[in-house]
Amino acid sequence: MDRAHKSMKKNAPCPGGIIPLNSGPVMADEQPLKSEGEQLEEILDDLQSDHAVKEIAGWESGFANLSRALDGIRPGLHLLIGPPGVGKTSFAKQLLDQIAMRNNAAGAFFSFTEAKKELRIKTLARLSNVDSREIRRGSAYLLHWYGVPRLRGNELDDISPSWEKLKRAAEQAQSWLDSLYLVECSGNTTIASIAAQIDEIKKIRNIEQLTVVIDDCQRLGEITQSLDARLPIVVEQLQSLAMNLELPVLAVWPDLGGEAKAAPQAWAERVASAEVVMVMENDSARIKQLTEPKRAVTLHIVKNRGGEKGKLAFDFFPAFSKFTEAESQ
């Protein structure tokens, strides 16, 4: 799981922080220039050759309503915005896991604040329905191999049922966990070094496509600048990364507006270059109908170049780092 992290290339940032065009695949303008008419027959042949009936164009997200709204997860920048504690990191990790599991697709999670161990506990808690606090208390014993416990005795009775439950969940997930990479970022991490890391994963897996999550992406900006000043610069750089590498990139950004926070729709105007902008917030009205420890969360899709806008309702179980879709609003 850590091979890509250990071989990270420490590239210097490019002028202006923009990824050069030669850092991605061969660009279209290096091919002979052809008109739309000249390519029409080729396009029709390509469409005709695809006999699969698809409900969505991109990858399945594991959330039916979200997949329909976004028309699947496709290349481009998807920006996820929300206040602290709403569950952004848990949602992003679950989304990455579900894309890997349902589409046989590789993925990379770049984290500036969450350690790999904590991210793995989130995944294990969600898959096993074992409370993350219980896993964490026994983590030194449990996590010798991504959550599969090492028996200290000869009898299975030495381990409680919850540990066996966690072990089975981890073993069942290993096939798709093998295609996911967790990378702990530092203050020296740049867009360029992330691009190099992605390239390394592509070589390891011998693939061209993967899903990328960048948590707390505001840390890629100049630390002396305010978040408002960093936002358009970082978003432009991440959109360049996504388009040059032709990959879906989910970037998580904090909303620290507090009481003076703007309406969700206002974010669409502030980040014009992103393909998709989603704003997550606690649903104070619906949460009264739920019992603890479940929370009600609304995901506002305020910008979407490939599909519909609107609101999606989720139930969030913090103890298990788990989101489930509720009814659409």
Task: State the main characteristics.
alpha/beta, 18% strand, 329 residues, Rossmann fold, disordered N terminus, 11 helices, 9-stranded mixed sheet
Task: Describe the model.
The chain is α/β, with parallel strands linked by helices. Helix content is 36%, strand content 18%. The protein has a domain of 215 residues: Rossmann fold, CATH 3.40.50.300. A 9-stranded mixed sheet has the order 3-2-4-5-1-6-7-8-9, sandwiched between helices. Strand 7 and strand 8 form a beta hairpin. The longest helix is centred in the C-terminal third of the chain and has 19 residues. The two termini are 39 Å apart.
Chart the SSEs and their pairings.
Blueprint: H1 3-6, H2 36-49, H3 64-70, E1 76-82, H4 88-103, E2 106-111, H5 116-128, H6 132-137, H7 139-142, H8 161-177, E3 180-184, H9 191-205, E4 210-214, H10 227-245, E5 248-254, H11 266-270, E6 276-282, E7 295-304, E8 310-317, E9 322-325
Parallel strand pairs: 1-5, 1-6, 2-3, 2-4, 4-5
Antiparallel strand pairs: 6-7, 7-8, 8-9
